[in-house]
Design goal:
It is built from 15 helices and 11 strands. It is an alpha+beta fold. A hairpin with an 8-residue loop joins strand 7 and strand 8. The radius of gyration is 28 Å and the shape is elongated.
Length: about 475
């Protein structure tokens, strides 16, 4: 990260909003032109309509929202606009040599823009002055100038659109600011390839890298783990916490706290696969479905709780219970419940289209964060308790939609009569649990070590009353 130059644009920057406004003007002008003659789009509507309109909308909508943390998101629309401008230049210029020169100049600009805003060039002025130089060359070259004059008189809205594109790109460059040098201990800076919910993991074994491509679905990459833990110390720990005033403290809180603590020591558990790439999640989040009331007719509601790796069992109890109570009080006003409630009124075809759109946006890391925040399909782990239903745990499948890499199912408590070390009969209590894991985030050896560590915390949960001595950072 020390070698990467990070660019950003604050929302107070006038050039940021100018770039967004010019992009809207460009998209609207092109639509007006299309509704009029639209002659230029007849040969290739995707290149001359879809490409520039989509690129302009990305700049207009995503750029103001994410420029402070992800200025590099402008790379995609700029590359799209460069492809369009190359095609438009070839159509305008009847000179073969000028057309070739235009292709080369614009390709160099796109490459310079890419290299600059992935952080490899230390200043934006190289690409800024290069763009200005291209515009000056086009203005002073007599052949180019005459071709433009002859081409645009009957296509005024197209001229407005193309001219706005150039000005919008200039405004983008003027809005970019460079962050200071990265210092040890500074917050992580998002880089090209990162998502808003996770940073791209690069330093992985080749087998882990190719696994998501060879097995593209999360269900296809699933591994199944079944284990049992003796809960004598756990029950004593629960009685102690209840005596301290945490009246609803139970097995679920111990299991979640154990998992959160395990991710603090085995951070690769907090990875996920999206778009066939592996990411490390910035935060630990646990999802669960809760009933509004304990009866068959009561509606379900999804709960997502965010935890810090250093959280103790008490922290987990307070955060989790607060989220559950809020979900039960909110009812249909819960974010995810509200979305599903609206979708229920839509025709099946529209619902299918919405599902495809969500998967498409998630694949390319452009799913809106408010939607990701309420989605039960995005998170570090999904947990379900069979114990309250009085049945054994099940192997619950992972979801191909979203990012959840681990699904844990807890069973009910039961007793077994056994012999102790002295050969005397004793009665002990146990719970079974089953875990389904995504093989794409780490190898089996790592999973085995992590599950053994989690089992140790379940068996001796008193350790969870204290923060971890050290939170291990994932490699990236």
């Amino acid at each position: 990260m020390n070698n990467i130059t990070t660019y950003f644009a604050t929302r107070k920057n006038v050039f940021l909003w100018l770039a967004s406004l010019l992009s809207i003007i460009s998209a609207v002008s092109r639509i007006i032109f299309l509704l009029g003659t639209g002659d230029v789009v007849a040969a290739n509507p995707i290149l001359f309509v879809c490409t520039p309109i989509i690129a302009n909308l990305i700049i207009a909508i995503r750029y103001p929202l994410r420029a402070e943390k992800q200025f590099y998101i402008t790379i995609l629309p700029i590359v799209m606009l460069s492809i369009y401008l190359i095609s438009a230049g070839n159509r305008i210029n009847d000179s073969f040599f000028i057309s070739i020169a235009a292709v080369v100049l614009i390709l160099i600009f796109a490459i310079l823009y890419f290299i600059t805003f992935i952080g490899r060039i230390k200043t934006k002025y190289v690409v800024l002055f290069y763009l200005i130089a291209i515009c000056v060359i086009a203005a002073v070259n007599g052949t180019v100038r005459m071709n433009i004059i002859n081409y645009y008189p009957e296509r005024k809205w197209l001229l407005c659109s193309d001219f706005s594109i150039i000005l919008s790109v200039l405004a983008l460059l003027l809005s970019a600011k460079k962050m200071g040098p990265y210092k040890e201990g500074d917050p992580y800076r998002l880089q090209f390839g990162d998502r808003l919910d996770g940073r791209r993991v690069h330093g992985m074994p080749i087998m882990t890298k190719v696994t998501p491509h060879l097995m593209p679905t999360r269900v296809g990459r699933s591994n199944y783990i079944s284990d049992t833990v003796e809960i004598t110390e756990m029950e004593e720990f629960i009685r102690q916490k209840r005596a301290e005033g945490y009246k609803q403290f139970g097995i679920m809180h111990v299991v979640i706290a154990s998992y959160v603590r395990t991710t603090a020591e085995f951070p690769e558990l907090n990875r996920f696969v999206a778009g066939q790439k592996v990411y490390h999640r910035y935060e630990t989040s646990v999802n669960m479905v809760v009933k509004k009331e304990m009866n068959k007719e009561a509606a379900d509601s999804s709960v997502k709780v965010l935890f810090d790796p250093a959280d103790t069992a008490t922290d987990v109890y307070e955060k989790f219970n607060a989220a559950v109570e809020k979900a039960r009080e909110q009812g249909i006003s819960n974010g995810y419940d509200s979305i599903t409630y609206v979708l229920d009124y839509l025709p099946s075809v529209i619902m299918a289209l919405f599902g495809w759109l969500v998967r498409f946006l998630d694949y390319f890391s452009i799913l809106p964060m408010p939607l990701e925040r309420v989605s039960p399909f995005h998170g570090s782990m999904f947990i379900t308790a069979m114990g309250s239903l009085g049945i054994p745990p099940i192997y619950h499948h992972l979801y191909d939609l979203g990012t959840v890499p681990v699904f844990c199912a807890l069973g009910h408590k039961y007793t077994k009569n056994e012999l102790n070390k002295e050969g005397e009969p004793v009665t002990r209590k146990y719970i079974d649990y089953k875990v389904v894991c995504d093989e794409g985030i780490c190898d089996g050896f790592y999973y085995a070590a992590a599950m053994k560590k989690m089992r140790g915390y379940l068996k001796h949960p008193a350790k969870l009353d204290f923060p971890p001595a050290r939170v291990v950072e994932d490699i990236y």
